[in-house]
Amino acid sequence: MVAQQLVNGLMLGAIYMMVAVSFTLFFGCLNFLNFSVPALFMLGGFLTWAFVQMGMPWVVAVLGALAVAAVASLIVERLTWRIQRGGPPLIPLVSSLGFLILFENLVLVRWGSDARSIPSPFGDANIRIGEVVLGVPQLACLVVAIGLVFGLQFLLARSKLGRGIRSVAESPETATILGVEVNKVVPRLFLLAGLFCALAGVMFSLSYQLVSPFMGDQVALKGLAAMVLGGMGSVWGAVIGGLVIGLIEIFAISALSADHVSVVVYGLLLAVLIVRPTGLFGDAGLGQQKL
Amino acid sequence: MSGYWAGILVILAINVIAAYSAWLPLAAGQVNLGTAGFMAVGAYAGAVLSGDYEWPVGAAIAAGAVASGLLALLVGSAVLRTRGLYLALATLAVNEVVRGILLNWDAVGGASGYPVIAHIELLPIAIAALCVFLVAAWLGASRFGMTLHAIEQDETMTGLFGVHVSRVQLAAFTIGGVMAGLAGALYAHHFSYIEAQYFTVLMSVTIVLSVVLGGVQTVWGPLVGAAFFTLLPELFRGASNWRYVLFAAGVIAIMALRPQGIVTRAALMRLRRAA
Fold first, then answer.
1. How many CB atoms lie within 10 A of CB B253?
2. pTM for this structure?
3. What's B193's DSSP letter?
4. A164 in a domain, yes or no?
5. Inside any domain, residue A270
6. Is ipTM strictly over 0.95?
7. Per CB distance under 8 Å, which residues of B are interface residues toward A?
8. pLDDT 10s per residue in chain A (291 long)?
9. Which chain A residue lies closest to B95 (C-alpha atoms)?
10. H helices of chain B, where?
């Protein structure tokens, strides 16, 4: 029983982890709390359903949904960070909220507000190990998510883009002086982080088989909590934070009830912010940008 | 006045009060993403006092505002050590914790909500909104308001001039909490029914959005922002589902063209010179 919940918690945590990584990329590099993340998550998950509904094969539907989310993220970059950088961090935050409302309601206009169930391309395939039941899609998501984070870490550490991103995170002005084309690096960062949360949306829809225009809101709040718990701006912190929040949620459901989850999760978030605002793995320099 | 317009004016008045509650901390550069949580405390405290304890409505509403203010004082003393976006996240967590507790508290109806027997009409709500505006205008023009503005500009420098920065911030946060509680208690006694699900983080976020859109520099900003947020979706009502799309596009456009908000200090100066 405990083993089963451990597994369920890790699988849910994989989704939060992806969202938290996305938040932490925006926050760590650009000091930008990007509230369009829940909308990009929703676009990934919901459009997968919509495209399958139109009769597209699964792979095409997923790729199409990711492409739309990627374009959406680039639009957000143009109208928020690019024109509002250097000012108070509140300004792009507000604009990104505008995009959250915009994207959610665009989807609502086209497809209505009902939650839709999405058939699984995997059927109801399960693997049994002793007492523990592993859902194949959830397991695949966990593996893919961890693989992607390793890939991201490698990209940030080794590639030219990664060096560019890290230099922008240190200081956009110094990066410009040193010949980094900030206006090329930042859109790529938006693309990368946007794809991360859109992919999390796809995973969520495949694992839990339910989509709605507002599916991103609750998940993204948990992702934010995961980011803070791990330490803002730290990719590995986001990974651990996501998995921990997933585990806490599953164990809180079984020990108390589903209604108590938000009290436990956000109570913990509040406690972390009061006692150790830098999170578990954050830097001592409060609010310092780092990756 | 038709019932439709009276209904909109009630919502406008409540939104104006909520906007000023978010504006006070924002004027000092602090983002409170938990306004709806404080509103919920005011709403439930007021409703329980006027219902279960049969207090007079006015006293119950005032007590709701005080209860929310006390919570703000408590939370503020703990989380105001954190800054900037950390504070925003802490208040967001407060919102969700308050909502989660109310949702599971059977004495106040839990998930099925709490019916409010006492009822108030538009007039007292409008008067309350006017009073909140006057208080905000007075605070804004006072030494306190200047200090808030100075802190928003440069916290370290303001501290060097001998201002006890964290105490001023706590005061702004607490007064904001009182106003939010007032808005919530008024809401409860007009709509006769409250449920915890209503007071979401998205609502808090929308309130902050309205203030920033209106402009945080002057006392007129929150008023303009709240009016924009209440009336614009109504104007687009004919466009049914599209209205929030149009509304969001409006928000994005305004923030792109006027990142300081609709009403800025410079704009007011220009108006005054022209007049």
1. 13
2. 0.87
3. E
4. yes
5. no
6. no
7. 26, 29, 31, 78-79, 81-86, 88-90, 92-94, 96-97, 99-101, 103-104, 111, 201-202, 205, 208-209, 212-213, 241-242, 244-245, 247-249, 251-252, 255-256, 259
8. 788 888 889 989 999 999 999 999 998 888 888 999 999 999 999 999 999 999 899 899 999 999 999 999 999 999 988 888 777 778 888 889 899 999 999 999 999 888 888 877 776 677 787 778 888 878 888 899 999 999 998 998 899 999 999 888 888 888 889 888 888 999 999 999 999 999 999 999 988 888 999 999 889 989 988 988 888 778 888 999 999 999 999 998 888 877 788 888 899 888 888 888 777 776 543 334 444
9. A266
10. 3-27, 35-51, 57-79, 84-104, 122-141, 143-153, 155-160, 165-191, 201-214, 220-235, 242-257, 265-274
Q: Let me know: does A265 contact A245? Beta carbons within 8 Å.
A: yes
d(CA A199, CA A214): 16
User: Which of B162, B207, B149 has its CA nearest to residue B183?
Assistant: B207
DSSP A284: S
Identify the CA nearest to B93 among candidates B8, B204, B13, B236: B204
Return the exposure string of B65-98: e unless at least 16 CB atoms fall within 10 Å of the residue's CB, then b.
Answer: bbbbbbbbbebbebbbebbbbbbbbbbbbbbbbb
Determine, yes or no, domain membership for A195.
yes
Closest by Cβ to A273, choosing from B79, B100, B209: B79
Which chain A residues are within 8 Å of B248, Cβ to Cβ?
98-99, 101-102, 105
| Structural domain boundaries enclosing A175 | 19-214
Query: Smallest Cβ distance to A273: which of B90, B242, B249?
Result: B90
* The Cα angle at residue A36 between residues A161 and A112, in degrees rounded to 5: 135
Instruction: Report the residue from B93, B205, B252 with minimal CB separation from A266.
Output: B93
Other Cβ atoms closer than 10 A to B174:
22
Residue A221, domain member (yes or no): no
DSSP B238: G
Domain total in chain A: 1
Residue A276's closest chain B neighbor by CA? B82
Rounded CA-CA distance A29/A196 in Å is 15
Q: Residues B23, B25, B30, CA angle at the centre, nearest 5°?
A: 115
Q: CA torsion angle for A177, A182, A183, A184 (degrees, to 10)?
A: 120
Q: How far apart are the first and last CA of chain A?
A: 38
Rounded CA-CA distance A169/A190 in Å is 13
Question: How far from B155 is each of A31, A278, B25, B26, B147, CA to CA, in Å?
Answer: 18, 20, 13, 13, 10
